[in-house]
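wait is this the right file?? whatever heres the structure
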């Protein structure tokens, strides 16, 4: 699939990026030294829970998919999602996530690991691509390739694509960088939503959660509260696209 090139329209954050490049480079170096490095939480990364309709789930992505910002997987995205799903499904699940991972790295990872069949996948990627200056066009192409692999190699029927979070709300970032990356995130997410809408079996889950006052100690990752709200958004989509044996109308969500 071809994606529109960035120069097709004026984007103020790009102009700011080039005009203030030396300043932003210094800020970036300062941030790398100042940033608190939080570990990935403890807890299982695969298993089987619940009763009901069989559901094979694959969660994959970066540090947010890994649950950084919490101290255990039960409080992270996967754990909070499993807590909801196990009420209505027999969930056979696996988590493959790593801090710092980009979408291109995820594609390489999927190409190497053994094939395994899943019914649904939940992805969380994009922030590292933006902070490492991947172009929107290249990132969307990498994302498309990842979706190809999930559907062809892993048999995924429904892919729930988490949107790019509101980077402009990340308290760790200085004001100019926060504005610039926030605008980039909005533009990348708009392209992601458009791409996902054109692909069968893919669903964009907007990351429109307020983050200013509910970020983790490092100012860059979600807390358990945010993961819970995120999990709820995905859970509701799953109920619609992969309904349990009991009528969804009778299920409290």
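ok assuming it is, sequence goes like this
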């Amino acid at each position: 699939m071809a994606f529109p090139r960035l120069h097709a329209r004026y984007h103020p954050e790009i102009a700011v990026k080039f005009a203030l490049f030396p300043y932003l480079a210094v800020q970036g170096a300062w941030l790398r030294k100042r940033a608190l490095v939080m570990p990935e939480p403890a807890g299982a990364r695969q298993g089987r829970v619940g009763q009901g309709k069989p559901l094979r789930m694959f969660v994959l992505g970066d540090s947010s998919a890994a649950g950084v910002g919490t101290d255990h997987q039960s409080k992270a995205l996967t754990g909070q999602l499993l807590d909801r799903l196990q009420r209505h499904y027999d969930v056979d699940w696996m988590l493959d996530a790593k801090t710092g991972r980009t979408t291109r790295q995820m594609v390489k990872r999927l190409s190497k690991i053994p094939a395994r069949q899943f019914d649904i996948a939940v992805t969380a990627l994009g922030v590292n691509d933006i902070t490492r200056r991947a172009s929107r066009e290249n990132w969307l192409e990498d994302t498309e390739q990842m979706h190809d692999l999930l559907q062809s190699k892993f048999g995924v029927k429904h892919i729930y694509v988490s949107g790019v979070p509101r980077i402009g709300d990340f308290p760790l970032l200085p004001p100019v960088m926060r504005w610039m990356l926030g605008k980039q995130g909005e533009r990348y997410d708009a392209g992601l939503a458009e791409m996902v809408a054109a692909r069968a079996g893919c669903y964009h889950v907007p990351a429109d959660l307020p983050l200013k006052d509910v970020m983790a100690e490092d100012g860059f990752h979600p807390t358990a509260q945010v993961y819970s709200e995120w999990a709820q958004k995905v859970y509701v989509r799953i109920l619609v696209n992969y309904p349990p044996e009991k009528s969804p109308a009778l299920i409290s969500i």
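The longest strand covers residues 53-61. so i think its the right one actually
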